[in-house]
Amino acid sequence: MKKKLAVLSMCSALSFSLFSGLVSQPASAEESASQVHYLLTYKGNNVPSNLSAKIEQAGGSVERVVEEIGVVEAKSSSPDFLAKVKADSNVQAADKELEVYLEDDPNPADGQPITSIPQPDWNDPNQNYHDLQWDIKKITNDFKSYDINKGNHNTVVGIIDTGMDFNHPDLKANADLAGSKTFVPGTKDAWDQNGHGTHVAGSIAGNGKVYGVGPNLTVRSYRVFGATGGAQQSWITDAIVSAANDGVEVINMSLGGWRWMANNLGDKGDSASMVAYHRAMQYATQKGVTVVVSAGNDSRNLNDIHDMQAYWKETYGLDIKGPSRVAPAQVPGVVTVSSSNEWSTDKIAFYSNYGSVIDVAAPGGDNGPTYDALYRQNPKGNYLDKRDFMYRAFSTWPTYLTPYVTGNLKGYALLHGTSMAAPKVAGIAAVIKSQHPEYSPAQVQAKLRQTAVDLGKVGQDPLFGSGEANIYNALTK
Q1: pLDDT of amino acid 24
Q2: Which residues does the annotation mark as catalytic?
Q3: Beta bridge partners of 363
Q4: Domain assignment present for 12
Q5: Both 160 and 265 in a single domain?
Q6: Where does the secretion signal sit in this chain (predicted)?
Q7: Are the C-beta atoms of residues 199 and 66 closer than 8 Å to each other?
Q8: Looking at residue 146, what is its pLDDT?
Q9: pLDDT of 32
Q10: Residues of the chain falling short of pLDDT 50
């Protein structure tokens, strides 16, 4: 059986950076009215040999198969399709397919970009932005970790995101163009048309005017987002399995948030989305992959489902019933990362989710202490004029895209979010693997926790987890 019916390999690049205004690409009226996408998971991870015939008999067609873990994407215009599929005793769970989005920015820039930073001169090897990288300096002990281990090209971080600018001067030496893939139907390559994935890549393996945690690491793109809009669960599941099969040491997933909830009370137990996520994460872990994910940017306690449900209802009009989870932040086996900031040792970033699920924190940036104080007094207030974008994370941006709204720089951008925190931890995990290639994912996770800088309350806490991850400590303790 052909494994990935709707996946295109690369021929020639997502709690996220808090981007705003990202919506699904509109389908035609006829297709919207007639075609619905479904996610199916089969018992025992076994896809039946007569899968296509079974799906056709139920009134649908097969779109994608992730054979290793028994996950199938199908589409149908029949209102009876789901009921017929669920009648199959070999189906563990089946649901309409959910879509994940990059996180929205609760306070986007409004025409006040920073213009004081010099434009890049890539012909000047002495020009750099290292002094602006408070976040990388913080977790590398002012870049001193580079004297011990910068990572190596044999250690690969798979970035499941929007793609990458493979020709960016700070990335091209480390970016694996040939190994990158796209999982977005209708696209032919993994070049980044959004910006988010390139920013993430720079935090991991930048080596030029900006540095990443591991300037000699290899970064490979597994593109699941288009220029705008969301990603289907099956695309992400497929990307996780593909990255694991490709032998990456670490996967970074700066995606999730409020739009990605998985209700756990399906007709046959867990929802299909949660089954798929569980299986994909387990598959990756068994392949030796450490999976790092962002906690999300809702400012919510992930332990309090009633608070989350009220928030979703009030903010987005979503009436979520039953014990739901935010994925992938609350999927077992992953390293879940909250966002710390530059100026506080007892407060995480105002937008960061928190709870017992947090393993470690990492610098994701914010708008500075003045904005933070006002926001915590009244989260619904308008304090846009109190933001200081210099407290955000500075990293790479596609050189061929319009500058991001926080500045006017070509090739670089200031962003904030748990999407900016997660890649710092992914980079640390990869450098740990460079030093200890024999480490299992459990050993990498233990090292991350044991060597984190204890912030907030003494010991484990719901804001920082074990503390703020630190690669210098991880290499020296």
Answers
A1: 31
A2: 161, 196, 419
A3: 340
A4: no
A5: yes
A6: 1-29
A7: no
A8: 98
A9: 44
A10: 1-32, 106, 265, 267-268
